[in-house]
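Retro notes, item 3 of 5
We never archived the inputs for the 4'-deoxy-4'-aminopyridoxal-5'-phosphate complex last cycle. Fixing that now. Sequence and ligand:
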Amino acid sequence: MSRFFSARHNKLVPYTPGEQPRQMKSYIKLNTNESPFPPSAKAQAYAAEAAKNMQLYCDPTAKKLTQAVADRLGVDFDEVLLTNGSDEILNFAFLAFCDETHPAVFANITYGFYPVFAALNSIPYEEIPLKSDFTIDVNDYIGIGKTIVIANPNAPTGIALPKAEIEKIIESNPDNVVIVDEAYVDFGGESCVDLIHKYDNLLVTQTFSKSRSMAGARLGFGVGCKALIADLNTIKYSTNPYNVNAMTQAAGLGCIEDDEYNMQNCKTIIENRDYTTKALRELGFTVLGSKTNFVLAKHPGIDGKTLYLKLKDAGILVRHFDKKEISDFNRITIGTKAQMESLISETKRILEGN
Ligand code: PMP
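Structure as it came back at the time:
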């Protein structure tokens, strides 16, 4: 740390992204919940075309893509804000809707970036423990009077709450914003997007990183009533008006035009998830019921860290978290059927001590 680093930030513990190996050894990469499938053909073609004009600034309003996303969701243009990944809309939301009098609240086991956004923006926050079965107790959030952040489905558990339960939380906190992070909703969760017309305190965030195979392009968005989106635009135009670059705007448009391809890939991932869950359970694993493109699994015969390291030695990367409540587990991204078959056979070999 330099002697110039502001005292406001010098105790920050930043978010640690999953490993992104760049060395020659080619891993089966099941550690950061990416799609194993390439982006759609139109997404690639449109991005390549847009690259020809990158001497120009991009459209700060991302008009075409915003309209396409709005149409896809059945909402209005000014009910959507596109961002550089959904991490950016989440950070904007912490900045816009949390402060000393509106502290943040989220589960103790959830997306690890929430406490970092809170700390970065000097926002007090509370973490509410999940139940012993790793589900959220909705009663904990009823009328809590804080800015609520809920990942639904949750990560890294993969467990989804029914929409009706989320609605109870939104309804009981009319004077606080409820941020529902739907990064994984396309793999079997129930979206709350249509509730934005019923509740002015609901912000839903989604991403093109998982179900739409665009993690590297960085595209996410928030959906909420016009006033919430206007507030978030104030933050955006005070931070980086050109937050979604020209190639990504073009790729996003192609991706939406090809959305059948993406939704077909989601179906395949769900099938591969069912296969993986069953095969791991047959090997003696406890696997939480997932509505995402990953599963959280533990085995009574081997601790989480050891299994992670042995799989890594075998060329398979999964994600292990040191957090004590889940340190027995590994989070395994669902890839192609062939990748999951390799995971199962290597895991079997490790368990047999070979
Ligand atoms: N929310 C959750 C729950 C996530 O797991 C992630 C991915 N790390 C994100 C948001 C952010 O994803 P992105 O910035 O790629 O949209």
